[in-house]
Input
Amino acid sequence: MIQSVTVDAATASPPVATPGMSAAPARPAAGPEACTLPVDGMTCASCVGRVEKALKALPGVGEASVNLATESAQWLPAAGGAAGAAPHLRAAVGAIEKAGYEVPRQAWRLRIGGMTCASCVSRVEKALARVPGVLEATVNLATETAEVTWAGRAAGRSETQAALVAAVVKAGYEAAGLDVAEGEAAAGAPAARRAPWPGEGARVVLAALLALPLVAPMALMPLGVHWMPSPWWQWALATPVQFWLGARFYRAGWKALVAGAGNMDLLVALGTSAAYGLSVFTLLQAWQQAGAASHPHLYFEGSAVVITLVLLGKWLEARAKRRTTEALRALEALKPATARVRRAGRTGDTSEIELPLAQVQVGDEVIVRPGERVPVDGVVVEGASHVDESMLTGESLPVSRGEGERLAGGALNGEGLLVLRTSAVGAETMLARIVRGVESAQAKKAPVQRLVDQVSAVFVPVVVAVGLVTLLGWGLGAGRWTDGWLNAVAVLVIACPCALGLATPAAIMAGTGVAARHGILIKDAEALELAQGLDVVAFDKTGTLTEGRPRLVELWPLGADAAAGDDSRLRALAAAAALMAGSEHPLARAVREVVPQGAAAPPASGVRAVPGRGVEGVVQQRRLRLGSTRWMAELGVALGTAGSDAEALQRRGLTVSWLVEDEAPDAPAARANAGVPPRLVALLAFGDMPKREAAAAVARLKAMGLACALVSGDNVGSAGAVARQLGIDEVRAEVLPEDKARIVGELKEAQRGVRPRRVAMVGDGINDAPALAAADVGIAMATGTDVAMHAAGITLMRGDVSLVAEAIDISRCTTRKIRQNLFWAFVFNALGIPAAALGFLNPVIAGGAMAFSSFLVVSNALLLQRWGHRR
Output
């Protein structure tokens, strides 16, 4: 767990070697450029030589040594190199792993405060990347968090966190550790993440009241009212707005300047200071020339109104950004603070005690009363009830839960009293994993964000340069220095890196949040972006498109028993159930499920399983066999016309078994007619039926322009039958688990001259994991295995295959919002900056436009919250 760390920015600095990387260096540190990495998996001197050789082969490495005792590698860069820089460090890690060894990694999450625009994001990422041992650092402006991957062992976590926090503080921002498991801010987290407090709104109101007398004359002039405060009153009104209410821009801008970077605050500070300074200069010059009678044209309203509008825009933006996390906060609110636990006393009596969730242990029996939320994951051991799991799975109707069934923490209990045996607590519960997955997706960057990062890295310097050129152009070219000054101010204040920085993460936050609310867990921002461009959706069959458990579909009495009608059918069913009474085979369970309630199967004796064929035994003095067509052929059973019926059933994708009878074991004829084959009693056909919603789900995907394919390990007949029922055209049957990934690769191939197709794989089993990883987008059912869910980028929280189309639709809507936001942000700057430079925009209008641009971007992303209402 990451604790909060307070670092003195004046004294803190990143350590020379990464803390915790090794117990001791491989050799005494040769200087500040030395870099050390831990290496796992070395066993002998030859391993040492192999790692050293791999490191020395890297460009820029001058010397390398490996210490087997401390399991660490150290190297020095060649002249002019920088071994500890993140790109060089990643190259070293790659070389070590390619040599067959491992470099342990640790993951960090930090809360970052004080960021205002995309340039801030770039600056924090660079500061974190410079900390020795950091392999990757990703900062998200919308969530105000940083995710850091560090090469090192867990022993040095506290020292490393101090170095990371110190690097952020030195760059001019606030930082605090986050608990990776719980996702909650540690003590001392920056206030920027919390809800906008009333004082911020009061500052906006106060700034507006001070700026109103300055801007009112402009509004009254068209009405024929000519009124203007005296020059000194204008100065008195504008000064507190500039240096008190606008002090935040000076502080943040100064930190950026000291760090050798720029941000939105620096642009606002420079622009408004220029307008304010020009006004003060003009005022003093006029005072000296004409005294108190002078009324020069001043620009105090420009600086005061710009600061007021920017403060208003940031306040509205903070409120809008908070709304993008409503879905996540709603999930977090599902977790009760306490649980009612049944514990045994010293005398052996049991009692109910209420404990904080942190004290509940796996194996504890937890009591959930009607109307309460389930506090932990567990299995029902007593009681039955209807449970509302809508916030976890998106299922709108309560579901029935009884003994032996699993419940997830956060579900709402209905009318019954339930007792659960705890199976998971804390960070391992389904609710915690969902929250962690959504937070991770929101913190990561979509591929389209790379372009934004490249632009934001040079945005502020370019804008300052444009402002300087504007001033010199108007001044030197036209001799209009005052106009040039004002136009340069307009250039500085209209430039908006905020909208660029928020365009992508705001949409991703809103999209992943609304998806989680509808039972779709998107764990990867890249999967969210790729899903909108899919061409093919490949499905596993068993458990994904079908129910995953066979059912007895047909039972036909044969031979002499056929004439008895329903009585013979019930006798055959009872006999089959008796033979399979002790078996856990899926077909045995299917037979037992259809035995009428209250009807007991007759006892069976001498029951013996025949591997690969079936089962045999004695039921009510009759020797019976139940098994496959292959076994019947070996026994010499004449199937007659029933054989043709069986083939027809198999073409429908059903599995056929036969019930046959020998002579009774104690009958004299049994010995006299030993070569007589058994006689047919009944034909049983089993099928794994498609899910009710599967056909509609496939039809909807086709309507969305997607091709559907079935990739299954089942036989051609079974797979083909399911595909025909569901309307799937492309079928790959009898595919081994290790070949499914290859099939996905084949599906990606397209005709000549056409781009490779993007493929999504939908599955739920361990055998689907390689294909899920090989697909462009892996989609796993939460009703399946953990291995499949880990390999997938999207998890459907209930076994409803119709959620596949909804996940793709959310992806398309989210990507559309990202494109709209980026278009607005780029066009706004591309048109606004030249317009300001050419004198078409005064500073007041420019400042207002800039202030509301980021608010509009976030508000546009919030429209995704209507997704569930328009379906």
User: Anything to note?
Assistant: Residues 1-32, 180-198, 666-673 have pLDDT under 50 and may be disordered. The first strand starts at residue 35 and ends at 38.
